[in-house]
Amino acid sequence: MSEYHEPLESLSQEAIEYHRIIKSVIEELEAVDWYNQRAEATEDEQVRKIVAHNRDEEIEHACMGLEWLRRNSETWDEMLREFLFTEAEITSIEDEEEEENDDSASNSSLGIGSLKEGK
What is the pLDDT averaged over residues 93-104? Predict the structure, then answer.
């Protein structure tokens, strides 16, 4: 794990663990890709089944890492909840969220108008 971008002594244990899990998820996703390519390329059915099984195990590991990130980062939690397990067009989810926030901000007030009306 020598891919730190800042001096190690400048990093908290939390930042080191965050880096560790990010690197692990990246490695698992790379393994998913490798096994998937092998499954696609082979003509041997038994080899395909084995590497497809291995691919699916790596997906499980990547998901475990993502869950750790969700549990340990408010931003990861928010983003995963916003984008995962939805039916909306993926690229429009963020736009819809922003529109909802804009609508609620414009509809809310400090009640100043109602105070003025009472006078």
Answer: 74
